[in-house]
Design goal:
It is built from 4 helices and 7 strands. The protein is α+β, with helices and mostly antiparallel strands. The protein is globular.
């Protein structure tokens, strides 16, 4: 497996991976926005030969902070290191561009969900810390938790 920065076809890559993750990415309007948004963002792909395992796109909020705007790893490749490698590449990119922090938003634990519990455990295992909960950022039925990693 290797990580590469993607410069073309980012939206198609995003759509391909998100289609394999309906539990996490099941809102068509949100998926369409991700597909559109990633075209203008630094994006990385985890690949095994020509096979795409996953991707990650970054959004810069200010000189100090990049956010993982969207990330997905195809289910067959969960727990095999692709996600960790993508976050490591994102952290390295953010550091190289002068950032001090890497953030990500995910579903809050106040909305119990086994899949998202694993997502939170993944990020916490990579050194992210819980920063703030936003009960209505996405919607009252979809409370957001922001996590932060000091670079």
């Amino acid at each position: 497996m290797h990580i590469e920065e993607v410069t073309t076809g980012k939206g198609a890559l995003c759509a391909e991976v998100l289609a394999t993750l309906p539990h996490w990415f099941g809102i068509p309007e949100s998926n369409a926005a991700y597909v559109r948004d990633v075209e203008a963002m630094p994006t990385f792909a985890a690949r095994d030969g020509m096979d795409t395992l996953g991707f990650l796109s970054l959004k810069r909020h200010n000189p100090h902070t990049f956010e993982i705007h969207v990330m997905g790893v195809k289910p067959a490749h969960h727990r095999h290191g692709a996600g960790r490698a993508l976050v490591d590449a994102a952290a390295s990119y953010a550091r190289q561009h002068g950032a001090k922090f890497l953030t990500v938003k995910t579903l809050s634990a106040t909305m119990p969900d086994e899949g998202y519990a694993k997502t939170r455990a993944f990020y916490l295992g990579l050194g992210f810390l819980e920063l703030e909960e936003f009960p209505t950022l996405w919607s009252p039925d979809n409370p957001a938790l922001m996590l932060i990693k000091v670079l």
